[in-house]
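Why does residue order matter? Because the sequence determines the fold. Keep that principle in mind as you read this record.
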Amino acid sequence: MTLDILMPFYGRVDQFRSAVESVRAQTSADWRLVIVDDVYPDTSAGEWALGLDDPRISYLRNERNLGVSGNFNRCVSLIENDFAVIMGCDDVMRPGYVARIEQLRSRFPDADLLQPGVSVIDQNGDPALPLADRVKTVLRPRGPRPRVLGGEELAASLLRGNWCYFPSLCWRSSRLREFGFREDRRVVQDLTLIMQIVLSGGSLVLDDEVVFDYRRHAASVSSQGGVDGSKFAEEREVFYEAADRCDALGWHRAARVARRHVPSRLNALSELPAALRSGDSDGRRALLRHVLGGR
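Structure:
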């Protein structure tokens, strides 16, 4: 039942150390941690990790910078066990994370994805609930939990709005190897991969027990690409590709949800004032295109 925890590193050293220590503080010892440094200029993080002298922890430094998705795929190549987590180097596992994942895996052995309960913290580690996460709460499926979701129900729900927290997800390793991360996408590669799994018959377990703290801050990749419209261009590709796949499966309701992508368009609308203030005419046009539903 050993859980592989892969941690791609490129960021603040203090937050990285907190992330690693949160793994070491797990109540279940059945885990291995592999840190993959994507040639971050400050080498003190690696020196600190090597100094821990913990046989459960491995530290690797890439020969060259692979970028976000490239380093994710490097992490996938290092997985040894049946399930894995690709944890953010600025996030925090609560002590019961691994133990809860073990419980969910035992109860739902056929699931390909496990989404445990998540809280949100800011750059200082304080509880936070910005608009993006309030929207996720609204979009998340209702009903008793833990529960298994799959098929058109899950596809339509995720295409309406991605309520998953990628760094907290536990993945079936064979599914990660089967699809991998698309390296032409920088921000929504997680939704792309999740949808590939769902569209190929995979299922997800949604749980309420909070065992993970997701750090939301301006420097995170998920917070970038809004004002210039690049994030929404990626999202639009995901939605229309998924819509075509859903139609081919006969999931026409999910396809309609994907083509409308209303919450994503509203999100782009919320970015317009900042684009106007910045004087970025290209960004303004890209955002307007997305708001108006242009393909």
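The beta strands are 3-9, 31-37, 57-61, 83-86, 92-93, 113-121, 147-150, 170-172, 203-215.
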